[in-house]
Amino acid sequence: MDEISYTVDDFQQISEGKATILFPRNNEVFYNPVLQFNRDMSIAAIKTWRDVTNEAKQQRYERSTNPSKMPPSTQFTLLEALAASGLRSVRYAKEIDGIDHIVANDLLPDAVESIRRNVHFNGLSPQLVRAHQGDAVAAMHSLPRFGVVDLDPYGSAAPFVDGAIHAVENGGLICVTCTDLAILASNNHPETCFGKYGGNPLKAGFCHEMALRLVLNSLQQAAGRYRRYIEPLLSCSIDFYVRVFVRVHDRPLLAKTVASQTGVVYHCRYCGTFATQPFGTIDPGKGQSTKYRIAAAPTAAQSCETCGSGQEIGGPCWLGPLHNKQFVQRMYDAVCAADQSVYGTQPRMRGMLKVILEELDDTPLHYDIATLCSAVRCVCPPLTKLNSALLNAGYRVSGVHTHQGSIKTDAPPHVIWDAIRAHVRETGRSSRIAAGSPADRILSAQPTTDISFEPHKDADPESRRTKLVRYQINPEKFWGPKARHSQPAKPPATKRKQGAEPGSEAAQADESMDLDAKKPKAN
Question: What's the whole-model pTM score?
């Protein structure tokens, strides 16, 4: 390896966690301070996965009766496929114990040079953090498998999903970021979303949760081709991107359950009512056997049963749990117990993890209260009022981390609308509702549930009562994704010097450059 040579004064020093990184001055491409939360969450998640994995290895070792058994290794390897400056890899190396080595890969030579420089500046061994130049997909298919694979691309992770599934060990962890919410969480470009993730997005109050489910479905579809199964440990919608942490298992029997956890969503364009349709069901067979069946006919009509408006179809998407609650609880406990200097974004981490712990994990998607009330032209009720109505009716309800002012509940749509109708009877019906309109059809329906707004003890979640940072406000001006990094432009080709004789070396070199310039470029 070439000797690393640099002058510290030529760079700007930026500290995050235990790492101090050298960035070219006036360069805003490589570093985005808003993503510190992403890196803090990733460090906490990898630590939790490491502890859970090592405990499982130790338990298997203790149960084994093989006389030649060897104590299990507690170390693991990690691949950052798109490492850029190497900040994430340096933080992982300095803040996570038990790493055998990290491969920090990037395609661009200047990025690889930055990785080597920052590894050296932070006093790390080049054997611990190994800078690697190459195509990310090629690296994931050619290098030995890793315990953890981290994908943090600019934009979509879709081109790298198959490689990540191939590159991770059995029981390993894949961490994936997607910043292309313009297609994942809207209906502006459904054809692009379907091409990248294999499903249609929906412009709805639950669009960010839908984005998570589209990404998870693309991961599972890739895993299924290798007879592997993904287990979502933690799925987060954060600022302008989504970040998911999934464990990959070599268990073909679990892969058979994917159809029952995958399906489409029927969504009313007007009132926001939705229904999910899984592709399969799992029924008990004879004895200990299991029957995997195709699901029955659609769960929704062409027109919305609530307001009569047209419906649209989203997906296919993941309909299973977004999180492993035991994993999240353990991660939350570790974050709360850590010193405040360990995680610079600890208050927000505690808030988001607590809200995720409070979420119902067996009810896909959620209702936006503002959308429901807009459909019938009424003011929004307090969150605790609507929660109390559903809890008093015998149903479960929770908030969601993906959207403020929303509820996730196992109550059927007609019960939710009965609660909204009862609220309208208290506050008064709007005079602007025309007879025969969708709003009129909703409010004219006869209630089927006795609604009581008496305050319920569980209507106000703990995360709200204790005033945790549940929903982050804009952290700074112009806080979105930074510009995409690109290689510096090449200098223009030198023209043939005046007076160069035809047939001379100078003239032949100029002619060769002219021919190369006229060649069509690959798309």
Answer: 0.90
